[in-house]
Amino acid sequence: MTVRELDAAGIHEPVLRAAYARCRELNARHGKTYFLATRLLPVDRRPAVHALYGFARWADDIVDDLDSTATPGERGRALLALEAQLEAGLRRDRATEPVIRALADTARRYGIDRRHFADFLASMRSDLTVGGYASYEELGRYMHGSAAVIGLQMLPVLGTVRPREEAAPHAAALGVAFQLTNFLRDVGEDLDRGRLYLPTELLTAHGVGRERFEWSRRTGTRDARITDVLRAAAAHNRAVYRDALPGIAMLAPVSRPCIRTAFVLYSGILDAIEADGYAVLHRRSVVPRRRRAVVAVDGLVRAVAARAVRRRGGEGPVAEPCASPSSRPRVAPVHEEAV
């Protein structure tokens, strides 16, 4: 499938093809939900998504790899080296690292704003020294770089049928929604890294402190107040998904099945967390395999139908690459006006 994707995207230079293949490998190995959704895109758009994911994954691993013995200082220097590679790739097309080579090519092809990558790396750097956030407002500033910009990077690749600036807030909200879900699912692992992405104001409102979370993680003991915090965080997360939802209808029709599938699967993690009794400090909640299969098949049917319409010339105006190289809504099915 890699060869077909690269040929369709017009990527022919051997070194560059190998760079994109490396990114696809990272996506397939680490981003299982994301990779599944990516396969619903037209083949010519997939390499760009792999490149964007590969870069984000590489930076995230520098910061978060629990198996690494690197010190914070060593991780910081690795991020600086990554930033230098990125600068060389974006400005002078001289990157030697395959992931950066593919990312720089994608940024040029789709006219992706370079500031999005700088903002992302700034948030990654903060993870080396910041272990918590006082409020959702403060957390939001961090997530602009760590999550919102991911949605903004994706938007030119996906294409839109409305002005891009109209779709951008929804794309940013979806990136934030996905990350908030990751924060809830991974709250125990993040505590092991010395971080808690639940704002202090939320904990205080439920009469519990960070040390109680650490105690629960360490001892395996449940606490009703912690459950209340997690339930409130999930409700906040669902509200962000609602803000993101209208943006799906603004995307190119051939891209909607991909994003709809990611939307349903990721927001479905919240259902899994609820079904597990908000026990995320002690086990990882996952969407059942059968549910994933049903959503994937539905996405495939929608993708095939959208491509058939496109071949008949019925897709409508779409942004193309640059000329140069209830309080708890059910998340599936997504409202029909959004698909």
**Average pLDDT reading:** 89
Helix content: 55-70%
Strand content: under 5%
Distance between the termini: 27 Å
- How many β-strand stretches? 0
Structural class: mainly alpha
Q: What is the gyration radius calculated from CA atoms?
A: 20 Å
In short:
By secondary structure, this protein is an all-alpha fold. The protein contains 15 helices and no strands.
What features would you describe in this structure?
- It is a single chain.
- By secondary structure, this protein is mainly α.
- It contains 15 helices and no strands.
- The protein has helices at residues 2-8, 14-30, 32-38, 46-64, 72-92, 98-110, 115-126, 136-158, 164-185, 187-192, 200-205, 210-219, 224-244, 256-275, 289-311.
- Helix 2 (14-30) packs across helix 6 (98-110).
- The chain starts with a helix and ends in a 28-residue tail after the last helix.
Protein topology:
Layout: H1 2-8, H2 14-30, H3 32-38, H4 46-64, H5 72-92, H6 98-110, H7 115-126, H8 136-158, H9 164-185, H10 187-192, H11 200-205, H12 210-219, H13 224-244, H14 256-275, H15 289-311
Helix pairs in contact: 2-3, 2-4, 2-6, 3-14, 4-6, 4-7, 4-8, 5-6, 7-8, 8-9, 9-13, 9-14, 13-14, 14-15
